[in-house]
Protein: Malate dehydrogenase 1B
Amino acid sequence: MTLQNKRRADCPHYAKTELLADLLQKILPDFHIHKICVHPSDWQDWLEGTCSSNGWKHESSPIVWRELIDRGGKGMLLGGFSDFLEHVQGYYGITSDMGSEQMMKIAAENLQVTEVLMEEAARQNQSLQVFHIWITGALSPTCYSLIPKLFTTELIRDISTISLHLLDVNSSEESLLGLKMETEDLALSQLHEVTVHSDMTWAFQSADLILFLDDWPSNSETPVEQGDKDHMVSQVAERFRSYGRLVEANAQKDVRVMVAGDSYVNLKCSLLIENAPSVDPCRFVAMTTQLEYEARAQLAEKLSVKTTDITDIIVWGNISGSSHVDLQRAKVFRYKGSIWGPTGFSQQVLEMIYDKKWLETDFLSLVALRRRAISLKTNRTAANSATNGILAVLNAWSNCYSSREVFSLGVVSSGRAGNYRASHDTILSHPRVDP
Structure:
């Protein structure tokens, strides 16, 4: 059993609960206690956020809860100081006779130590000028694929000191610690620290870049029932509203935010923008490049060229829903047809593919089902192509994308995109040059 014991740094009742918890950890098998001290100035915001995300009601310090599976698992509120004492006495017949004077003395010492540690951390961060990257859905295959390559992007390559924060809500802390160890073993010269988080308590603190990889995939081969779909959408909305509020409260105001995944990508990005009103909406993007590259791969196979020989595909609409792959400007290079040209010579894709029926039927279904086909063959998500798409957007953010090549990206709409009408403030995928 794992107990979480969190309190204000100046809370006198904490000393008594800590003494009892330490004793239980010493005498009971498989009993673990995790203690966190919160400064008085941060306590109320932290308490309200924690209770809101868990559906609890609690107003005083300390707060004690039991995690039913592992640290980071689902929590059951035990209560405060009196509740914990009654729980320990009722279950184990143990109590504490610590007096009020000693409790006050320990509380003052705790506050002093907390403030010293906070000052040291602030001085260290100021001197290092740390760039903070947060990744959610950290235990996803995409994150595993992304981390080693992330530090090679143009956006990050010249940054000397980076803190990487890995968040996977309600996941096993052991799994996150394993990921932390593996990341540290990469021996990346820019990496200052790796932190892991299984709850949203401190999410996006000082964030300069946030990558949202959370997903709610359906692995079933049968259509999802409407009730299940509604429940899934409700879960997505609740999670990303909370994320948006935390971005608003904790992240830098010039933070860059990218949403990637296989489900509800536009919705997630919209909810983040809606709940982080002080951050410029233009700093939020939804990743379209994976879908764009999947379409390029199908066309390349049809024309017997490399995927890189297909360019200027445009994706309009809802990235993980109703979207349109526009080939009006698509080009093919090095196509072995009746017309040849010098290096850099290209032809229109629509003129080289004579099978219009294939374009209107098979091509669209092949693109739509590409990721699912990969997942069925590999029993995992298409992590490598997702990583490649994320890296392409990060490089584009550093103006490393060719200005002559069309680039699709999900961004907030101003009401019209090309010949397509869209509601104001809607996330819509359309062509961009500099995201």
User: Anything to note?
Assistant: Residues 137 and 213 are 5 Å apart (CA to CA).
